[in-house]
Amino acid sequence: MSAKVPVAEKLVFSGGLLGQNMLYSFMSMYILFFYTDLLGIPATTASVILVAASIIDACLDPLMGMITDKTRSRWGKFRPYLLFAPCLIALATVLCFWDFGGSRTLTLVIATFSYLLWGMLYTVCDTPLWALSSVVSTDPGERTLFVTLGKIGGTLGAVVITIGGIQLLLAFGGERNTQAYLYSAIIIGVIAALSIFLTGMLTKERVVPSAEKISFRQNLQTVYKNKPLLTLLASLLIINLVNGIRQSIQLYYVVYVWGDAGYATQVGISLVAGMLLGMIATPPLLRRFAKKKVFIISCILGSVACILPYLLGDHNVLNTLVFFGVSFFFSGMTTIVSTSMLLDTIDYSEWKLGFRGEGIVFSTNTFITKFSGAVSRMIIGASLGLLSYVENQPATPQLQHGLSFVMFLLPALCFLAAILPILFYNITEKQRVQILSDLNHSRSL
C-alpha cells in the first residue's frame, strides 16, 4: 500500500502551480495588448510573432520530455529542473515586457527573441512540474488529490492575475504605461520563481524509475502506441481553446464592449468562483461516475453556458458575469477530469509497453497546451484583422459584436468539438482497476 503524500507537500505543489500560472496568465492576458497598444506593433504582425514562436517552442516540448525521462540524479528525474530553471524564466518574463525604445525593426526582433526564449524556459519548468504528480505516489486516489490541489493552485494563480493584474498595472501608472508592465513582470516573475523553487526543494519522487535505459524510439512509443493518450490529447487541443481564446480577447472585450478595463476584476471573480467550485466538485463525482462520462457532460453544459449570454445579450454585465461563472465551473471540471485521465494513460503505458514515460507524456501535453495557445492567438489576430481593429480608437458596433462572438460562441463550439475525440478514449473503469492491480502485483515482485 502506497503511503499518503504529506499535506504540506501537497500544499507546496499547489503553491508552485499558483506561481507558475500567475506567470502564464500574465503573459497570456497582456503580451498581445502590450505589443499592439504600447509597442505599436500591428495586430496581425504581433499575432504572427506569438504564433510562430509558440509553434517553434511547442515542437521542442517532446524533446524536453525525453530529456527528463533519461534524467537520473541525486534529486530525482524532475526536481533538478525545478531547482535551477525558475530564476531564468523570471528574467525572460521581464525581458518580454521591457520597452527598449528602439526602431520598429529592433522592437520586432527583441519581441520575437524574448517570447521564444520565454516559451522554451517555461517548458523547462512546466514539464517537470506536472510530471512530478505522476511519481509522488502509486496510489491513484492520492495522485488525483495531488493533481486537484495543483489545479486549484493553478486556478488561483490565474485568478490572482485576472483580478489583480489590472490593479497592479494601475498602481504603476495604468494599462497604457510601459513601465507598469515592466514593474508588474518583475514582481510576478520573482513570486513564480520562488514558488517553483520551493516545490523542487520540498517534494519527493516516490515512484522509482526503471534502471533500464529507454531508447529514443521506445520513448516515442509511449505516445504513438498509446491510443487513449492520443485521443485525450486531441480533445485537450480543442478544449484548451476555450480559456485560451477568452484570456487573449478578455482585455479587448472589457475595454471595447463594456468600456472599462476595470471590469477585468469582475471577470476574474466569476472565474475563481466557477473554476474552483468545478474543481472541488469533480473528485467526488469521479468516485461515482466514469471519467469519460463526466468529461462529456461537462462539455455539453459548458457550451450551453457560453451560448446563452450571447443569445440573451451581453450588455447586462451582472447577468453575463453569472454565465461566465457557470461556464468556468464546467471548465474547472474538464480540467480535473482530463488531468486524471492523463495519469491513467501513463499507467496504461507501463502496463502495455513496460515503461511509464511520464516526461514525454506531460511534455506532449505541454506541446498541446502551447499549440492551443498559438491557435488561440492566431484566431484572435485574424478576428481583430477581420473586424478592422485599430488601437485606441472608439469602438464600433461591428467591433463590439465581433468581440462578443469571439468571447462566447467560439468557446461554445470548442466545448462541443472536444467531445468528438474523447468518444474514442477506450480505458474503461473496469480496465483501469485491472491495470492498477496488475501494476501493483508486478512492482511487488
Automatic annotation (TrEMBL):
Membrane topology annotation: Multi-pass membrane protein
Stored SUPFAM superfamilies: MFS general substrate transporter
Residue spans crossing the bilayer: 12-33, 39-60, 81-100, 145-169, 181-203, 224-243, 263-282, 294-312, 318-346, 367-390, 402-425
Organism: Paenibacillus silagei
Keyword Transmembrane helix recorded: yes
Protein name: Sugar (Glycoside-pentoside-hexuronide) transporter
Compartment annotation: Cell membrane
Entries under InterPro entries matching the protein: MFS_2, MFS_trans_sf, Na/Gal_symport, Na/Gal_symport_CS
Keywords, in A-Z order: Cell membrane, Membrane, Symport, Transmembrane, Transmembrane helix, Transport
